[in-house]
Amino acid sequence: MALNLFSRLMPPEKSFTSLFCEQASCIVDAAEELRDMVGQRRVSIETHIRSIRAIETKADGVARQIFVSANRTFNAPIDREDILALAHELDDVVDLIEDTAKGIQRYRLESCPEEMRSMVNAVAESAELLKKAMPYLDSITADYREIYATCQRIGEIEEQADETFDAALSRIRADLGAGRLQPIGYLDQKELFEWIERVVDKCDDVANQIQTITAKHV
Question: Span 30-51, mean pLDDT?
Answer without folding.
Answer: 91
